[in-house]
Design goal:
heterodimer; A: 94 residues; mainly alpha; Non-ribosomal Peptide Synthetase Peptidyl Carrier Protein, Chain A; 5 helices; B: 412 residues; alpha/beta; Peroxisomal Thiolase, Chain A, domain 1; 12-stranded mixed sheet; 13 helices; 16 strands; 20% strand; disordered C terminus
Chain lengths: 94, 412
């Protein structure tokens, strides 16, 4: 599984939780706290669910509440032990 | 005790985005009832609705709110924005704990939930939005308005089908009387997705008429059910003395009284309690039936319910003893939004000295003995209006609206 880029993370966050509430220069984005960007714990849970679907990486709930910045999240995704080990999502029976 | 005044109004309803255009449409009898276009209704027995058109929430709300809100919540957030803008409360006038929110909702977030349930069934639980946890439920309007506008005072959510919007206004009025200087109140609903529509039809009172002009006929001999609509209104209520000291520019009128009752069980043989709700509201306002200049009726559009309401009105006011109107005939029934829109219309009626007509009703049974305003607005000097609402399964609520002394020619 290819590493997740900052750009991909930003697109994913906008898709699941909307545009950030603060204008932040792209160079500073990785280290800007989620609270400043307007992403609360629900937004991060939603992002984690989407990351699990698209990247096959499961982020434990406890880590979701620990991470502060996009860089923290990227480190978790790209360095996560067991990344790619997630079983394929089971489709609901018709 | 200081009066509770309405200083801001945001109306978002079929036929009018904003108070003034909506009021014009009501007076002109411009019906917003038309073919429901949100989805393919060809398999449904009822296909007419009062829909909001020409509104793009994405232009009015941040995307972070769009991803987490049902259409009904977007409506109520926009109406709250409009009401606050109308009230022109300068930042810093009140602290966050001096302002609160009490709204009503009857349907919850059907469209949002329908979409998430589809994900649940087709993809699995992990695909369901975390925002479903609150996007579906009745209190979300109050919560989102509170968060968006930092209103941290008293809050609440009332659910009483079509009576609930009046309950919210009544409870917000009480909060102001107890000492909170400003409250936002009202409600809005929308359930025009396939699941929401099926749920509404299951109630058995939705009109299956195909002619939009003859589908919702409150108090008519041909009454055949109601047409569901969407939208509602938010009002800014303030303590009259603090509103005056901040120099509030709009004094639409007062919320003078409120009462609510619950009907006895159908098998008990007890009498419906709408009249008692009206009397409680009059008592709360310190007036009697002879002081009421117009009644905004619930107007179910179901013969049995219309007859019952007509009986209640004649018992209180005598045969043809007071003008009665149902302006919601142009929007359909808006559930939690219905009462707040009626209160907004009553305030405009007082301002302009005009009772808006009941749009489509042509012939009222003689046995009803009510003076229903039809065909055209009726000029009248209005000091007090009684607004009635009934919710399915026994809810009755009534609000007395009083003309603001500063707006009228005489002190009521």
């Amino acid at each position: 599984m290819a590493a997740m880029t900052l750009d991909e993370l930003c697109h994913l966050l906008v898709a699941v939780a909307g545009e950030p509430s603060a204008e932040v220069a792209s160079t500073d984005l990785a280290d800007t706290e989620f609270t400043e960007l307007g992403y609360d714990s629900l937004a991060l849970m939603e992002a984690a669910a989407r990351i699990a679907q698209e990247y096959g990486v499961r982020i434990p709930d406890a880590d979701i509440f620990e991470m502060r910045t996009p860089r923290d999240l990227l480190d978790l995704v790209n360095g996560a032990p067991g990344a790619g080990d997630l079983p394929a999502p089971v489709a609901a029976r018709p | 005790m200081s009066a509770v005044v309405v200083t801001g109004i945001g109306v978002l309803a079929p036929g009018g985005l904003g108070l003034e255009p909506f009021w014009e449409g009501v007076c002109d009898r411009r019906s917003a009832i038309s073919e429901l276009t949100r989805f393919d209704t060809s398999g449904f027995p009822a296909r007419l609705a009062g829909q909001i058109t020409g509104l793009n929430p994405a232009e009015l709300l941040p995307s972070r709110l769009l991803v987490q809100t049902d259409i009904s919540t977007r409506f109520v957030l926009i109406a709250a924005d409009w009401a606050l803008r109308d009230a022109k409360v300068e930042p810093g006038t009140y602290t966050d704990y001096e302002t609160g929110v009490i709204t009503s909702n009857a349907c919850g977030g059907f469209e949002f939930t329908h979409r998430e349930f589809r994900k649940l069934w087709t993809t699995g639980p992990a695909a369901v939005s975390v925002y479903e946890s609150f996007a579906w439920f009745y209190a979300v309007s109050t919560g989102q308005i509170s968060i968006r506008n930092t209103l941290r005072g008293p809050s609440g959510a009332l659910v009483a089908e079509q009576a609930g919007g009046l309950d919210a206004i009544g409870h917000a009025c009480r909060a102001v009387r107890r000492g909170t200087p400003m409250m936002l109140t009202g409600g809005a609903d929308s359930a025009l997705d396939p699941w929401g529509w099926a749920a509404q039809l299951s109630g058995g009172q939705v009109s299956t008429a195909t002619d939009p002009d003859r589908a919702y006929l409150p108090f008519d001999t041909d009454a055949r059910g109601y047409v569901p609509g969407e939208g509602g209104a938010i009002l800014v209520l303030e303590d009259a003395s603090t509103a005056a000291s901040r120099g509030a520019q709009n004094l639409y009128g007062e919320i003078a009284g409120y009462g609510s009752t619950f009907d006895p069980p159908p098998w008990s043989g007890g009498r419906p309690a709408l009249g008692r709700a009206a009397l409680l509201a009059l008592e709360d306002a310190g007036i009697g039936p002879t002081d009421v200049d117009v009644v905004f009726a619930d107007g179910a559009g179901v013969a049995e319910l219309d007859r019952g309401e007509a009986e209640t009105i004649t018992e209180l006011f005598g045969a043809c003893g007071v003008p009665v109107t149902v302006p919601k005939a142009v929007t359909g029934r808006l559930y939690s939004g219905g009462g707040p829109v009626d209160v907004a219309v009553a305030l405009m009626a007082m301002r302009d000295g005009l009772i808006p007509p009941t749009a489509a009703t042509a012939k009222v049974p003689d046995s009803y003995r009510i003076d229903l305003v039809r065909d055209a607005p009726r000029p009248a000097d209005l000091a007090h209006a009684l607004v009635l609402g009934r919710g399915r399964w026994g809810f009755n609520s009534a609000v007395v609206v009083r003309r603001s002394p500063r707006l009228g020619s005489e002190t009521p």
